Amino acid sequence: MLKKVLVTLGLLFLLILSGKATETIVPRLSPLPATIQGQKISLNGEWYFHPSLKSGFNGTEDVKNWNTIQVPGEWVMQGFEVKKGEAAGYVRNFALPASWKGQRIKLRCNAVYSDCKVFVNGKEAGSHLGGFTAFELDVTDLVTYGKTNQIALSVTSESIADATSNASNYAVHPLGGITRDIYLFALPEVNFSMFHATTSFDSTYTDAILKAEITIANESKEKADGLTVNFILKDAARKIIPLPSASSPVPTIINGKTETISISLPVTKPVKWDSEHPYLYSLTCQLKNKQKILSATTRRIGFRQIEVRGNQIFVNNHPIKLRGVCRHEVMPLRGRSLNNDIWRKDVELFRRGNVNYIRTSHYPPDEALLEACDELGMFVEVEAPFCWAHQADVPADKHYDVLVNQHVEMVNLNRSHPSILMWSMGNESLKFKEYFKQASETVKQLDPSRPRIFSQWGPDADEGTLEITNHHYPGPEGPDKYRHYKRPVTFDEFCHLNAYNRLELAADPGLRNMWGKLLDAMWNDMYHSQGVLGGAIWVGIDDTFFLPGEKAVGYGTWGTIDGWRREKPEYWGMKKAYSPVKISLKGNMDHEGKIRFQVENRHLFSNLAECRITWEAGGQEGNITGDIAPRSAGELEITLPESLRHTEMLNLTVTGVRGFEIDRYCFRILPKNNESQSPKHPAGKLTCQESKDLIRINAGKYQFEISKRNGLLTAAHQGKSVLNQSPSLMVLPLNGEGEGIQMTGKNQTFAPFNPVCQNWVAQSVECIAMKEVIEVNILGSYKEAEGKFSYRFYPDGEITVSYNFTLLQDISPRQTGLVFTVPHFYNQLEWKRKGYWNAYPKDHIGALEGTAKAFDETLPVSGLAGPSKEPTTAWSFDQTANGSNIFRSTKENIYTAVLSGNGKERISVLSDGTQHFRAWIDGNNIRFLVADYNNAGRDTYLVSHAQKGYRPLRKGDSIKGVVRLRL
Question: Across the chain, what does the average pLDDT equal?
């Protein structure tokens, strides 16, 4: 809570809470002047810093031997250590222009984590508790002109605000520091201390009322009379929109007092703001004395109205569905202190991923994010800075400062942003009545135009008092469970990405591609459930921080994009699942060149005619349009020219109303004329020789040996090794382990979890030579299973390896199949496969066809946390000692997978789209798995979705398959 001058200038109002009147102080946050040039001085940059302050610190100490530090920033991320519970000191000088004399000088701190005192020229200017909300101090009486001024802050990271937000605990490092912008600005002595605006529509949603709320402060020594306020509304093209009664007189304001005015301005047929059409007006409020403009300030206005009707939310009379992500403020080398307009980049990335809603977990963001959401089109749930708050005991004398005032500051700064859809009282905290009820009532009083939510594990944590309820991780049953619920339900966290099963991820980055299928199924059910407002994927961005010394801390790689803002495999899965234009082929192209499509338009506000759909076939392209209303279905038809009527493939690209690609498709419009899929083996010489220890088979240039000691196979091509001591049976158990859920800075180089079955003992080896094939059968047992391998050799060098085993113990597998070992120079992979989606980006690990290199000597080796320095390549090319992400990820449903060396050496796996392939570096060898069963892994929070694909094996169950290899 702010002290000193803020208390006298804050907006006071009464709330009726639990039957009694309670006074609430809204700390002042002045709207900036419309013309800020020359009226603002940034204090960002280099400051002096000391990690341990002496008693009585006020900034007048000799700082010449202090270190320097960059502001904004966290001190830990810059290599400083401050003892827990102690304050660190910041000092810098500044100068004020003489032209500012006679004005009021304000200091704005957009965030200081988490408890601070501010001193100007040795005198205390004020203090603030709370690490994610902005505050303002009046320093007029403390500064001088024409001389050097000094500002100092004592900052403590650990406080009761830190404890109730759990933010340092969450990030696995103290967040202390001046973490957002800090600056000075000048205002006239009679000025605006508050300016907010809300909009509402008439019953036909045609004409609107623009309600402006203004507080004018008289900080002069005289009374202020003869004042008027004047409003100017401009559209996006800067054209002035006529406003009736655009001016209003201001009552006389005695010195040291404020006057609050509320004015309703009728606006005829304004262009509406929504997430697909983020149309912004500007509203300027001028404070005049007769014809002289004393002050002016401007807000951007989006005309939109939010209503709760039953178990749905309507925006501008349209029922909405929220396709969301949770977002933390995160940069790998800066912690929670961001820069370089990363907020806008994030919004651009997420909207290109078909996200229309961001939840600011678990604290209010920098206002720059909301400005980007206003402009680019994105709904926002702004969350108060509380996470597991029940774990902290809040003293009675701090109850208001911590549990109410931070909500007040959040709402007071941000409530004019049209992008904000709802306020969240906090995350996953108990004690609603004790800790959050007063705050939620205060929020409603401050802003009755928006609903409130308490983001929790289940729907009853708010005692049924808020407009929207919530359920984190409801599982696949959630959409049906809440279909007819009495309130709108948001799944504020759902479809948690694979993150904590680090042993599985170390072996197979392909788990990240498999996640998209699970999201698609869940989102389709959510979309068609009326009571489910939508949800926010956990989570948007990896939460990984590299402390000095490259120690990785945080929750890790749980984002659809990484901390460097590179798209991960899940990003494409999210984009496809969330696509607002779903297109499916209704049949093959007919003899007249006509192709028909079923189209579902899942836009909330846009007719399909507002999109551009481009087709491409046979090197030609064209455009089609369709008149399909929002949240409706229909058909589209394309007639290809005669020259293209034997073209087999057609690509569609959908460009949305805001000008970027929202989806793409690739359809087979004519059948592929395949030759018979049955293998044909050319005639050739096939010989077999047996000795006491070996079976030797020659097939032209290929030589095979089967050991009679263990039944394993070795192959060579013209004397050069191809296969080494293969195969091994793999019944890979599910494994959710990963050394806990947080990375704590210790070395976490996880060996890939790739155990094959153990203790192979061959019981018999039998060779059967036939005219065109030689078959070798091996009976044997592992610790886990017993059964048979069967090798069949053909004259052209093709081999089939069959297996049929019976389990000797219970295992719930992630993958089952055969593992083969080849020399290290087989380090190039090519593949073709059948995908869940019919289109993928180039170099995506799930691409339908592609190439990959096992390892690139020019690139660094990363742990599971990813690169500790900003990378120059796509995520797919990150690599561990076991290979690049794109090389070692499972390729599901393959037709072919080929490993090759620098020369003509190649080993191919041939399949029919039902098997899966995965390769990795193992010491001096390359190993590859051909799996007949595969699932999405065992991350703790995703298992309710992934387990639909589980096939637990019991003792006595059998597994079998056939692997077809060509050398």
Answer: 94
